[in-house]
Amino acid sequence: MRSALPVNLNRIDLNLFAVFDAIYTAGSLTKAADVLCITQPAVSNSLSRLRDMLNDPLFVRTGHSMTPTPVAQNIIVPAREALKLLRTSVQESHVFNPLTSEKAFNFASRDLLEVSIMPRLMAQLQDVAPGISLTNYDVSRANIVSAMASGSLDFFADASTFADPHLCKQKIADDNLVVLARKNHPALADGLSLETFLKLGHINVSQRKTGPGPIDVALDKLGKRRRIVMRGQHFLTVPSTVVKTDLITCMPYHLAKHYDLAIYDMPFELPPIEYFLYWHVSADHDQAHIWMREQIMDVARAYQPH
Questions:
Q1: Rounded to two decimals, what is the model's pTM?
Q2: Domains in the chain, please, with CATH?
Q3: What is the DSSP string of 231-294?
Q4: Which keywords belong to this entry (predicted)?
């Protein structure tokens, strides 16, 4: 009698268990081959590999039939349950019912999605997909592709372009930068000129510790430079400083309009901001993913920039 040996999980091939199930049900290699639509040698080869992996003959020939061993009898139920779960998962990837789904979608977006789109999206989903949940969390750009490839991240939304052959993208919104200042700002009683814009202290929002952004690049082309006295990582934290100081900041209109602060047009020309939604190519044809992308686009179409 063979001694039991630990099974190396890295060697497990689910196709072998499909063959195992067919042999167990049919009672012969020939009938199993007919059921699986493969050759009998292919069935024999799969059985040989499974025997080697599990260190057990699994079936012994009794007349014209293959009789399962005690080990085979012990593993047939969990093997069939595993195969059923796999088949169900594959089928659900082709048939998606939002009304009954309890799928969780994970997003990585800093400001646009969380402030302007996600609230509208959640309101839209509560009736048509009450069991679906949304999570938005921070993922560094360096880890975006790997997080999507692993399935831990479904969507990434950002204003900057992200070029990677493993990602699909679609533009979801346009916006423009405006200047935000506290109400009754003493230097802005007559409006905001370029001269005043350059004279006042600025809060600059950037994920980088140093370096120019689009505003500074545009000013440099005019031979101008603004006075940055504070840097922050997120637009959402800036208004609490603006309301208490004489500092001004530039931010997308879709965010600025939510605060009880004074909004001014930029005193020089800047190109509009384009926002893109990204997802991994492996999810491009997934029915649940396609449905969620449609919901996001429905919400985004209703979004109106300044």
A1: 0.64
A2: 9-94 (1.10.10.10), 104-175+274-301 (3.40.190.10), 177-271 (3.40.190.10)
A3: EES-GGGSHHHHTTSS-EEEEEHHHHTTSSSEEEE-SS--PPEEEEEEEEGGGTT-HHHHHHHH
A4: DNA-binding, Transcription, Transcription regulation
